[in-house]
Amino acid sequence: MSKEKMHLIDDLITGEETCVLASSDGIRPHCSLMYFFADHAAMKFYFFALDTSQHCRNLRDHPHACLLIDRRDDGLSLCIHGVHSPIRKRQTTEAITRLFLMKFPQMAELAAHPDARLLRVDGREAHLSDGLEDLFTTKLKNS
Questions:
Q1: How far apart are CA 62 and CA 99, in angstroms?
Q2: What angle do CA 86, 62, 56 make, to 5 degrees?
Q3: Can you say whether the dihedral through the CA atoms of 89, 56, 118, 33 is positive or negative?
Q4: pLDDT for 3-36, tens place per residue?
Q5: Model confidence at 131, in pLDDT bands (50, 70, 90)?
Q6: What string of H, E and C letters represents the secondary structure of 66-94?
Q7: Full-prediction pTM beyond 0.85?
Q8: CA-to-CA separations, 57 to 45, 49, 52, 62, in angstroms, rounded
Q9: Which residues does residue 67 pair with via DSSP β-bridges, in sequence order?
Q10: Is pLDDT at 143 greater than 90 in this prediction?
Q11: E-strand spans in 1-143?
């Protein structure tokens, strides 16, 4: 049973292009629909945002985040709890940016903006809902 659920989690992560990213300023939550790129093996999720955006400010001060990936037509939703992890190496940022833009060429203008930041959230725990009553929870790899 859990093997089947893990397959569904993998399929949602690799098969979907957008998610809702939730962050907090410590008091109020902030949610946005975002394109994401996933390093599936390491359970790291990448997003582009302007450095002045609410998400960037929130994640700098309060690094815990939540992602929601769903397939509403199938009644599937995946909630991933994670922690923002700043990218320290320029080569890593450049490599992930290239991969991100291969998948989402429409994001090239934002990625080229001088205030654009590549955000990384390390996934720690996943909650898969299949319908209203079927909930599966698991720790993620490398968490």
A1: 27
A2: 55
A3: positive
A4: 888 888 999 999 999 999 999 999 999 999 999 9
A5: confident
A6: EEEEEEHHHCEEEEEEEEECCCCCHHHHH
A7: yes
A8: 18, 10, 7, 8
A9: 21, 80
A10: no
A11: 18-24, 29-35, 37-39, 44-50, 64-71, 76-84, 116-130, 134-139
